[in-house]
Amino acid sequence: MSTTSTAPTTTTLATPLTLPNGAVIKNRLAKAAMSEQLAGPAGRPTAELARLYRRWAAGGAGLLITGNVMIDRRSIGEPLNVVVEDDRDIEPLQRWAAAAQSDGATALVQLNHPGRQTLAGLSELAVAPSAVQVDLGPAFARPRALTADEIVGLIERFARSAQMVVDAGFDGVQLHAAHGYLFSQFLSPHTNRRNDEWGGDPERRRRFLLEVTRAVRAAIGPDKILSIKLNSADFQRGGFTEDESLAVIEHLDREDIDLLEISGGTYESPAMSDGGTSDRTRQREAFFLDFAERVRTVTTVPLMVTGGFRTGTAMTDAITSCATDLIGLARPLALQPELPDALLSTAETTRSEFELKKIGVKKLDSVADLWWTQHQIQRLGAGQDPDPTYGARRAVFDALRRDGRNILRRRRGA
After folding, report:
1. By CB atoms within 10 Å of each CB, which of 168, 193, 238, 316 scores lowest?
2. 3-state SS, residue 377
3. pTM confidence score
4. 280 CB-contact burial (10 Å; exposed 0-12 / middle 13-18 / buried 19+)
5. Distance (Å, rounded) from C-alpha 248 to C-alpha 242?
């Protein structure tokens, strides 16, 4: 069982955090994963990614977690995802790791597989636990159900990619078991309709995540960081619930993991973008902080809560009350890459300038915000400053044009 000491009442945002494996994160502010869309040919890391992460490292966060890194070039979620699956990827990974660790930051690679959440025409292999298509129209591929042998192969792929990124110099990995991607699809009764050893009841639905967790730990060794990002719930009828999430966390507590990040939602129900609307959520800012306090009753693994934090006061309260051990910041750092340094120096008066970007079309609002954020990330990768005047509607238009062009290039093998 993973253990960690109870945080003292004097804990602040600047207090270092020691993880169960002995790694020390220099403060309590973490850059959470965001899709960068900055990969080069064959999904390799680029100079732009290194420049981007050097900028974020200079901004003062103690922990940097990369965006989606795929484990199979045949199955990717977005046209310019980084992919790590063989030794050809080592040298650009080494440059990326060195940039992310500059200024003393700890750096993790988020490993992922899209499962059914892949755009139509993008992936050679659109697979999922069961053949359940994303309910957002024809933009998403219709997946086929994985065979038992393919599932075993995916476990091996996750372990191999994890070993490669730590061999390249990263401090560890995070498995993305949230937001409706492959791990989430196995966990949810809505998307996992199997009746074999990989589905049919909660125990079998969580088997894939547990088997990958064990294989990755064996691959990276005891000294590297192993983190899991998990949904509190899917917020879908017939989907993964908070009680099921707590049961998964109880089982993860028996595994050798170092950090658990709490989030929620899927592409179809994006709670990770708009969070809760209760008075308590608005007061505390963080979307999933109440659930994190329930998690404390079933695990001693250090927690990270991402989503909704905007003021230094709320972040400090969450840390000093021991509701969470790390504050995850994502979209605010695309607009204010130096925000962590400001929070560490004057938390009581510092707040994020970020506001959700919407265009007034419900099914497009969450992707409008995503694409707006990606534009700012790509500016940082190009060595430029963010552009707060960039409009949400323009972000949607530019992204649709860009993704369409990149999908065509992928089909042509360019």
Report:
1. 238
2. helix
3. 0.91
4. exposed
5. 10
Nearest to 337 by CA among 368, 381, 369: 381
Query: What single-letter amino acid sits at 324?
Result: T
234-272 pLDDT, tens digit each: 776 678 899 999 999 999 999 999 999 998 766 655 554
Tokens of 85: 């699956």
User: What's at 117, amino acid-wise?
Assistant: Q
Residue in this structure with the two tokens 């003292």, named with its chain if needed: 8
Q: According to the 3-state scheme, what is the secondary structure of 189-248?
A: CCCCCCCCCCCCCHHHHCHHHHHHHHHHHHHHCCCCEEEEEEECCCCCCCCCCHHHHHHH
**What SS3 class is residue 238?**
coil
- Could you tell me whether strands 24-25 and 17-18 are parallel, antiparallel, or unpaired per DSSP bridges? antiparallel
Instruction: Give the Cβ contact number of residue 104 at 10 Å.
Output: 12
Residues contacting 387, CB < 8 A, separation 6+: 375, 376, 379
Q: Strand, coil or helix: what is 207? A: helix
The residue written with tokens 């204010």 in the block is 336
What is the set of domains in the chain, with CATH numbers?
Answer: 17-356 (3.20.20.70)
Q: How far is CA 258 from CA 27, 264, 330, in A?
A: 16, 20, 20
